[in-house]
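Incident log, entry 3
Record: Membrane protein (338 residues)
Problem: checksum mismatch between cached and fresh output.
Input:
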Amino acid sequence: MKHKGLLLLLAGVAIIGLMIYLIGPADIAKDLKRANPYYLLLAVIIQFITFALFTLRWSITTRAVGINVGKKHLLPMLLVGMAINNLTPSARGGGEPVRAYILGKYSRTSIESALATVIADRGLDTFPFIVLAIITIVSMILYFNLSPIWIISLIVAVILIIVVFFLALYVSVDDGAGERFANWTINTLKFFYKKGYEKWSLKIKNAIIEFQDSMRVMLKKKQVFIYGIPLSFLLWLLEILRVYLIFCAFGANVTIIVIAEVFIVATLIGMIPLLPGGLGAIEGMMIILYSAAGISPSISAAVTVVERLISFWMTSILGVACLPYFGAPVVKKLSEKL
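Fresh output:
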């Protein structure tokens, strides 16, 4: 089990390699050589701006519950969390507990309060995603010749995300729902551990109470929504702009709308916990949809390779490079997840 994450990562890389082989490595290499480096540099700069804005948004939720940690310390925590999300098949959620763990240890606050700030931060991301996903589905139905199964799958995926989001929000603030969740967790422990679960019962209930208290504090802070939601929309727009700049580097004529549609669908695919960070599945979907929009397969592949080098591999490398900043316990946690 220890090497499962690494094997899945290699499987994702193998899928990408197969797609490049089928499209034609020579054609893709030719397109890569003629890419405008200035647009690519702008795309990289946009990525670093998004890191800064992600950090700023997280700092809003941490300050709301009285956790005072400087942004220069939050940034490496954020990058480590992103790296774990990328490198583990965990539906892009494996990095959040580690982020909370690091924040709790570093700020000497409870893990429950730290986790509340992380979940609230991810929750802010959900608002623009739902809006953009709905617009994307309507647009793709109108302009793409999609089969009914694809349309139904996209609609179901967005509905599931909305339902999970509101269920999580409900459990986070409602006393009765929190108690039911605590009881369910304790009963699950009883099933797996016939003895010794009693010592965890009180800890679980106290942890959920503290978590809910922290969530309620944040929900009452207007600045969390006033600044957090516009920041989230800006972050999504910058992510789409980054892809647009990469297309500009290859001289491809593609609209922002098409890029946004493909980006949202690829994000939905990436949430399926099969391969680390959706590796292989996301690339395949992006190439197929860009090609369906009239872009040549070689340029679609070249753009996808460069985009993922920036958003996936560069982010993962930076996150892993930040691990020594927090010491051996976090390194051990990451090795266990992989």
